[in-house]
Amino acid sequence: MPEHDTVAVEVMRYRPEQESTPAPQCYRVPLRKEWTVLDGLNHIKDQLDGTLSYRWSCRMGICGSCGMTVNGEPKLACSTFLTDYAPESIRVEPLRNFPVIRDLVVDISDFMSKLPRVKPWLIRSDESEPEEGAYPQTPEEMEAYKRYSMCINCMLCYSACPVYALEPTFLGPAVIALGQRYNLDSRDEGAEDRRDVLASAEGAWACTFVGECSVACPKGVDPAGAIQRYKLTAASRSLKEFLLPRGAR
């Protein structure tokens, strides 16, 4: 295949049984208008080097599995096209701020351990079943939290977050945004249950509002906005508790 019909894809490889540190390896893949970076990686895996390791599943920007660093930016490989970068070479690396397990596969166990701390589920004081099998909710009430419910746990926001890079104890953008998603849900009564975690030094107050998490988010979730909204809520609640007697809050 003529060189102008291909593009160089430089993949960061790390096989712990072979390399002590990650190192780049270059491949040439067909340059086709409809091909994404994921298609290029699949071509490498199927036709050039079967040892390449990476995660992927739906190929539709829904599952969040194929988060990677493409030319220095956190991207979903399934929705990032080779033609966005050609004819220049394309550098594909694992997501930053996570331990690398192998090649482009990172360890997200830190995120998974933090996620349940914000109790990302509906909390009700009344445990009985709702009438007609559902709690009623208006379109306006759903709209209040819908944006924050679109998270696909792709980890792009964590890779982009400078706070998480420096302070691994930080809960992180997606976790806090998901906690806020339930706080804003009219059916939920668990805001107080989440308060100690979300309003802690490792929670919303650790965020310096750089905003890179929202820039990186492929689903428009705006975790930075969710965090700032929670800060306002938490500050208002603390001020009321300080100024008002308990019965007047």
From TrEMBL:
Pfam families: Fer2_3, Fer4_8. Pathway: Carbohydrate metabolism; tricarboxylic acid cycle. Residues 10-98 form the 2Fe-2S ferredoxin-type domain. Keywords: 2Fe-2S, 3Fe-4S, 4Fe-4S, Iron, Iron-sulfur, Metal-binding, Oxidoreductase, Tricarboxylic acid cycle. GO terms for biological process: respiratory electron transport chain; tricarboxylic acid cycle. NCBIfam families: dhsB, PRK05950.1, PRK12385.1. Its cofactor is [3Fe-4S] cluster; [4Fe-4S] cluster; [2Fe-2S] cluster. This is Fumarate reductase iron-sulfur subunit. Its EC number is 1.3.5.1. GO terms for molecular function: 2 iron, 2 sulfur cluster binding; 3 iron, 4 sulfur cluster binding; 4 iron, 4 sulfur cluster binding; electron transfer activity; metal ion binding; succinate dehydrogenase (quinone) activity. InterPro entries: 2Fe-2S_ferredoxin-like_sf, 2Fe-2S_ferredoxin-type, 2Fe2S_fd_BS, 4Fe4S_Fe-S-bd, 4Fe4S_Fe_S_CS, Beta-grasp_dom_sf, Helical_ferredxn, SDH/FRD_Iron-Sulfur. It catalyses: a menaquinone + succinate = a menaquinol + fumarate. Belongs to the succinate dehydrogenase/fumarate reductase iron-sulfur protein family. SUPFAM superfamilies: 2Fe-2S ferredoxin-like (SSF54292), alpha-helical ferredoxin (SSF46548). Binds 1 [3Fe-4S] cluster. Binds 1 [4Fe-4S] cluster. The lineage of its organism: Bacteria, Bacillati, Actinomycetota, Actinomycetes, Mycobacteriales. PROSITE patterns: 2FE2S_FER_1, 2FE2S_FER_2, 4FE4S_FER_1, 4FE4S_FER_2. Residues 142-171 form the 4Fe-4S ferredoxin-type domain.
